[in-house]
Amino acid sequence: MATEIEIKLAFKKGFSEPQINNLEVVLNSLGCDYVISKKTLENTYFNTPDFLLNKHKVALRIREKSNEQGKNVFIQTFKTAGHSVNGLSQRGEWEWVLPGNSLNLDELQQCDAWPKEVGLDNLVAVFETNFTRYLANINWGESTVELVLDWGRIISGGKQEKIHEIELELKRGNQDDLKSLSGQLKKHLPLLASDTSKAERGFKLFKSFA
């Protein structure tokens, strides 16, 4: 289990492009040394028909992505909600590599954080989040921060919502540096702090027609 410490920033509405060029202009002006990589991520989120995972404030997904060898791999991720204030969140996260695109129920059953009231046999796919991710590691202050810009869609039952956000995850160092970098990005880009995860947005979209 890892503790994920991150800040989420959502772009204001109205953009038809991911704004990666503008982000690079800002990073260059701040003197950051970085290389941006790009990849496509497809994610399927699961819940029970009566939304017990929501009630326990946890999320479960399978992510399909390409590894460094260009081969598609599947990662099962289970996250607890943790605590989020002004975009800064801390939460538990567990990950397992899968042989294919199906849940490993044995690993979930053995996970101490899995809510025991949730029957593993009742899990069903409820929505997808599919997006392009632009990623760079930034040395800022005394810390290393992973910066990602996500651009894509949340899809459920024929309905869609746009994904357009930046996430800053603390890989090494302290939260003050994380907050400082977030402040600089908000100063120069049309960004707002966001406490709503992709999973929360997806479940809300699913419930709007369920």
Residues in helices, as a percent range: 10-25%
Q: Determine the N-to-C terminus distance.
A: 33 Å
Rg, Å, rounded: 17 Å
Assembly category: single chain
Parts with pLDDT < 50 across at least 5 consecutive residues: none
Proportion in β-strands: over 45%
Outline: globular
Per DSSP E runs of 2 or more residues, the count of β-strands stands at: 10
Mean pLDDT: 92
- What structural class do you assign from the helix and strand content? alpha+beta
Q: What's the SSE pattern?
A: EHEHEEEEHEEEHEH
Strand order of the largest sheet: 1-6-4-3-2-7-8-9
How many strands, what sense, and barrel or not for the largest sheet?
8 strands, antiparallel, barrel
- State the helix count: 5
What's a quick, concise take on this entry?
With 210 residues, this protein is an alpha+beta fold.
Defining traits:
8-stranded antiparallel β-barrel; 210 residues; alpha+beta; single chain
